[in-house]
Write a structure and sequence with these properties.
Shape: rod-shaped
Order of helices and strands: HHHHHEEHEEHEEHEEEHEHH
Number of strands: 10
Number of helices: 11
Bound molecules: phenylalanine
Mean pLDDT: 92
Largest sheet: 7 strands, mixed
Number of domains: 2
CATH topology of the largest domain: BirA Bifunctional Protein, domain 2
Strand order of the largest sheet: 1-5-6-10-9-8-7
């Protein structure tokens, strides 16, 4: 019987090392220390077969074994729970949680999407054209031969003598006309533009424009006016007033500048509108006959209007932002305020 006890001790301790989690540990406890059918209980039931004079020694041995297995069990239990305890020591559960910071869309992207939505309702589709453009499309086909003084309106980054970073999205007018001719057109052409200019609160060397172009039969200046008024009222509020001033662009005739009553002071005069009561929202005009011709359309049959808007400027008016440099200087304190 004493040998049996010795054997039980060996297998029980071996087995215990194999218990790797609380569930297995519990199985082990039931198997060896369980009161009803545990191996130790069964061993003790055999005491009747032990000769009377050896019973005391056997009882003592069985008792020692029980204590030993119990201690081994507790030690293993402690061992298995230690990693969790260690971890708890390094985590201060009383600290407040760290806020999860979410990314969001750039203000320019938000503004562009809002503009797309408004123009989409009026039937304009979005088309995109290259940022690196030929001098030919950026200027010549827009009625500005190499020596034309109006080129001074755009300070230009030249990639080489024939290639520029587009100074405006207007070369897209030619590209769209050549793509769609002779069908009618209603498109907006968004994208980045570049100008070799000093960076100030009012001008960046890189900014976005949204060009608009409509070409068809019997399109008039009244269509341009209606489109601009509708845009201003959807973007800035139903009570907006819009005015059109004479202007000049080589690729439109007549040309206009579109102003809207200042949303900050409602026409009273303030810093934003430089005390005029009006803010400029875009340049526009009727597509010049020569530009229609360059795009493949017969100017005796077709006419069209075009406009060029600055989404950063739209966003600046809308959110009362007084420095365009904030848009692209990657300061999340600024960018995080929108959306
Ligand atoms: N391209 C002009 C600019 O950059 C704006 C414009 C577009 C004017 C379309 C008329 C028609 O200033």
């Amino acid at each position: 019987m004493l040998e049996k006890a010795e054997e039980l001790k060996k297998t029980a301790l071996d087995d215990l090392q194999g218990a790797a989690n609380p569930a297995e540990l519990n199985e082990w406890r039931v198997k060896y220390l369980g009161r009803k059918a545990g191996a130790l209980t069964q061993l003790l039931r055999g005491i009747s077969q032990v000769p009377v004079e050896e019973r005391a020694a056997f009882g003592q041995a069985a008792n020692e074994l029980k204590n030993l297995l119990q201690a081994a069990y507790e030690a293993r239990e402690e061992e298995l729970s230690r990693p969790a305890v260690e971890m708890l020591k390094t985590i201060d559960v009383t600290l407040p949680g760290r806020p999860v910071s979410l990314g969001r869309l750039h203000l320019t992207t938000q503004t562009l999407r809002e503009m797309y939505g408004i123009f989409a309702q009026m039937g304009f589709q979005v088309e995109e054209w290259p940022e690196v453009e030929t001098d030919y499309l950026n200027f010549e086909l827009l009625n500005m031969p190499p020596d034309h003084p109006a080129r001074d309106m755009w300070d230009t980054f030249y990639v080489n003598p024939r290639v520029v970073l587009r100074t405006h999205t207007s070369p897209g007018q030619i590209r769209s006309m050549r793509r769609h001719c002779p069908d009618p057109i209603r498109v907006i052409l968004p994208g980045k533009c570049y100008r070799y200019e000093a960076v100030t609160a009012r001008s960046e060397f890189m900014f976005y424009q949204v060009e608009g172009l409509a070409v068809g039969r019997r399109i008039t200046l009244a269509d341009l006016k209606g489109t601009m008024i509708d845009f201003a009222r959807q973007m800035f509020g139903a009570d907006r007033q819009v005015r059109f001033r004479c202007s000049y662009f080589p690729f439109t005739e007549p040309s206009v500048e579109v102003d809207m009553d200042c949303i900050i002071c409602r026409g009273e005069g303030c810093r934003v509108c430089k005390h005029t009561g009006w803010v400029e929202i875009c340049g526009a005009g009727m597509v010049h006959p020569q530009v229609l011709t360059n795009g493949g359309y017969d100017p005796d049959v077709y006419s069209g209007f075009a406009f060029g808007m600055g989404p950063e400027r739209i966003a600046m008016i809308k959110h009362n932002i007084d420095d365009i440099r904030l848009f692209y200087s990657n300061d999340v304190r600024f960018l995080g305020q929108f959306g």
